[in-house]
Amino acid sequence: MARYMRPPNTSLFVRNISDEPEDLRREFGRYGPIVDVYIPLDFYTRQPRGFAYIQYPFPMIFNCVCCC
């Protein structure tokens, strides 16, 4: 048994995204309230790296969120 119990995961990793966080908020907001949308930038070019993390306020079952 592990000594440290991690809190439940409340973020969702999304690949092949557009550059606008508002688009992601609109699309994934229908599955529940969103706390934050984080799009990492390349250190040198300051361009989006093509993926994002979407954080929800509580643990969810992400099996229903499917983007093909």
Describe the structure.
The structure is a single chain. The protein is α+β, with helices and mostly antiparallel strands and 68 residues long. The protein is 12% helix and 19% strand. It contains 1 helix and 3 strands. A 3-stranded antiparallel sheet has the order 1-3-2, covered by helices on one side.
List the topology elements.
Layout: E1 11-15, H1 21-28, E2 36-38, E3 51-55
Antiparallel strand pairs: 1-3, 2-3
InterPro entries: Nucleotide-bd_a/b_plait_sf, RBD_domain_sf, RBM, RRM_dom
Pfam family, one: RRM_1
Organism: Oreochromis aureus (Israeli tilapia)
Overall 3D geometry?
flat
* Strands, total number: 3
The whole-number mean of residue pLDDT values reads 80
Beta-strand percentage? 15-25%
Which residues sit in consecutive blocks of at least 5 with pLDDT less than 50? none
Decide which structural class fits the backbone. Answer: alpha+beta
- Continuous helix count: 1
Largest sheet: 3 strands, antiparallel
Key terms for this structure?
single chain; 68 residues; alpha+beta; three-stranded antiparallel sheet; 1 helix; 3 strands
Quick recap:
The protein is of the alpha+beta class.
